[in-house]
Structures are given as C-alpha cells and as structure tokens.
Batch of 2 targets.
Target 1
Amino acid sequence: MMEFFIFGLWLFMGTTLISAHAYVIWKVCNREPNDNGSDVVDSKKLPCFEYKVEEKSNGPEMDCVVCLESFKKGDLCKLLPICKHTFHAQCIDSWLIKTPNCPICRTCANSK
C-alpha cells in the first residue's frame, strides 16, 4: 500500500514540474513588449556627434565600455539622453538591439 502512495506522489510531483516548465516556456515564447514600447529603443533618435578631444584635458582617456576601445578624434558617438553616457555609435546600436538599457548604469535607454 505504501508503494502506491509513493508512486502517486511521485507521479503528481513529476506532472506538476513538467506543467510548470511548459508554462514558463510558453510565457517566454509568447511575451510581448510592454504597452508603452519600453522594450524597444529607436537608436536613430539618440543624439549623435563627432568625438572631439579637448586641448587642455588632463583627465584619463575615455573608453567605450562596449568595445573597450578609446575614443579618437572624429569617432561617431551617441549619447544616451537620460544617463548621459557616451558610446561609439555602432557599439551602442548593437548593444540596444539586445537590451534596452545602458551598459554602464542599466538606466532605460529610451528618451522620455
């Protein structure tokens, strides 16, 4: 009799676990962006500029944290409007395809 109880419990737990996994997979596959579209960043709307080196700059060189390269005079850069972090234009465009957040501070990259 105890074997039937253990078998029933095992069967119930296994079915519950499989159902939970199936539900999670279904939710991930069928998720939609938020109603306000915050999951999508239109990188074309981000401010773009040419990097300029200041003559009297005593500070360390600035680096793009996405590619880890130093900014050079004339590089095309983009500025995230909320946190004001700067990146190479191509680097941040590639980054924002994957995630809508700043790679430094995780602030949402959408301009509000």
Target 2
Amino acid sequence: MVAMLEDGTPMNNTYPCTGGYTCLFYNSTFKGATIRQGQGAKPANIPDYAPYNFYGEGAGSGQGVKNNAASGMSVAPVSSRPGEARPLG
C-alpha cells in the first residue's frame, strides 16, 4: 500500500516533510526513503503501518514501514511554528 495525497496522487520524494506532517525515514538522521502523513496526506491517521511501504528514492524504497523506520520527525503546522522540526522519540 502506498500513501496518497488528497487528490489520489501517490507520494514520492518530491513531497518533503514540511509544516503539519509527521514523517518516518528508512535510515537514521532523516535519510533514505520516507512515508509522510498529516495534512494533505492520506491516510492522516495510520493505526498499523504493516500494509504501507516507504516511497521515494534512496535506501528502503519499496520496503515495508512496520519495524523498519530508523528515524522520524514531526513538523509543526505553518500557522503555529513555521519551519520547526521536532525529532520523534
């Protein structure tokens, strides 16, 4: 399963982790393939990552997300704190 944008477009590495999103990355230090969820991303709430794969270029593209995420970040919505990225955990 691939994460989608609101218009049904599959996400790829041209959709960076920006304001209002939470992103998981295949490699540490926010590198490699990613999955993005939050405003504009479908689904916004993912209770189980088992059916999802990392997307984009780089290590881990096409790999399952569950038990394979090495880093993650949550970026505050632009309306609250522009550009503030917070590592998860």
